[in-house]
């Protein structure tokens, strides 16, 4: 098993790391277990001070850390800086709000249950395992770690094997901020070792962001050992454009929604469902903007789209496009693997997809957009809801009644109106159907890994 940084812009190896053996994994879990017991006796004020200090350290390291993200997985350098900044903001958000989110909640009328006092309180679970992907090497982890640690839990991280430098940075960040030793520990292990960590009695829960097969495997093991799990899996999010929409704003936003992070985002707009009355004009504007994007070295400040993170990811994306084209789909932009080094794929727009194209049901994890012409809002929702995924969605309309109808009708964990899906610390994040279950961020996210304890007093 290879745990290594390979620059996706060149395909060249950068640094390789030895996996942790069983003894080292045991040592790190033991450290996390001891830290979890210590954290239970700390106050929200103490944890908040440590979390703010860790956020300060993150910002001090911004330039070097952003470069690490770009070299490890290929995101444009400006987006890497933005990811670091977003992580620091999330850490401060939970430092500020954790105590309020987890405050005791008294029953207004305790006499109704024969008590003089009755209330609920939130308590930490202990050690929580996070299995995280490579596409947002810091953000995916921090959006779990910040609330988990502020709730008084400890964390252990199994990160993707192609972002080990990011994983090792996170291994020390929280201790540098002042948290007890072992409060957050990285495990350099492969996927085959995850089941044993979930089974460990010191590990009380697990959260995973990743593919549907990975989610099924983790959920099965968690279920076998009766442990709490939160899953954030794939998405094939619809981006719906109705006749009343501001077409220029919709087209410009559609491009950002599709190619942010080189198109490797679970919440990216992937299927663009456009009303027939405005389809031709939207398609023209969208394809022109996609074709005009600058693709190249992600360390170049002017580049808008870098390489895909892995060769296998680039090849799988190309296979999906080739399958659709071979069955009759029309290419409006891109559609061919470029010559040269690195795992690049051009911003691509496909139209007139046949029903048997794999892209109809499978997630395109890269800068490939599928365009659909729809006759009315009913057809738009039928196509939007026909996939097995249900992560997020976007709707463009200026009609208030139409807006309310779409909000009611779309099967998704979120609906964004006249904008693109973005995750915010202040808003719950998660999906339904095969996109997973549970929520991250906001108050819902910190409560996922807390024991809701009922207290009744005579």
From TrEMBL:
Aldehyde dehydrogenase domain sequence ranges: 3-455
NCBIfam families listed in its UniProt record: PRK09406.1
Identification of the protein by name: NADP-dependent succinic semialdehyde dehydrogenase
Family from the record: Belongs to the aldehyde dehydrogenase family.
Family matches, as SUPFAM superfamilies: ALDH-like
Entry keyword set: NADP, Oxidoreductase
Gene3D superfamilies in the record: Aldehyde Dehydrogenase, Chain A, domain 1, Aldehyde Dehydrogenase, Chain A, domain 2
InterPro entries associated with the record: Ald_DH/histidinol_DH (IPR016161), Ald_DH_C (IPR016163), Ald_DH_CS_CYS (IPR016160), Ald_DH_N (IPR016162), Aldehyde_DH_dom (IPR015590), ALDH_GabD1-like (IPR044148), GABD/Sad-like (IPR047110)
PANTHER family (UniProt xref): SUCCINATE SEMIALDEHYDE DEHYDROGENASE [NAD(P)+] SAD
Organism for this UniProt entry: Agromyces tropicus
